[in-house]
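Lab channel / #folding
Pinned by the channel admin:
"Please post every new chain as: sequence first, then the structure tokens as a reply. Keep commentary short and put observations after the output so the thread stays searchable."

First post following the new format, from NK:
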Amino acid sequence: MNETTLCVVGNVATRPVCKETALGTSARFRLAVTSRYWDREKNEWTDGHTNFFTVWARRTLAANVSSSVSVGDPVVVQGRLRVRTERTEEGESRTWADIDATAIGHDLARGTSAFRRTARTEPSTGTAAPPPPEPNWETAPAGRPEAVGRPQAEHAAVM
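Reply from TO:
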């Protein structure tokens, strides 16, 4: 299927709203994206037009958005563009641009962020799954460059 995917950088304009539905967790917020350009007459950067998108997140992404994103945060959103046009009771045509997000993160060009992994749950039991073992990222012993980045048990087997 040919879908329009995009990556948008902007600021969170509304508080994320998270709801539990029959299909799972869903969250939405409005994203303000303002273009900037260099005004040669004023010799300064100037704000251009602001576009607003409704960003939709589903499942785990929705839960993480509701606990990580606040109004005013600079974010990067990647997802599928959905444009909806409807008629009001007065007969006016209204158009909305939605983004079905596949990834959302803070814009690290404009600040810092602290990442925390969420606990994954086992579908059958609903309990948290143990985290996978971390690989050994230490440098390899002299003369053994092929061992770099291998898990500790595999590293020991190579030696």
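NK: Helices lie at 59-68, 152-158.
TO: also worth noting, The radius of gyration is 22 Å.
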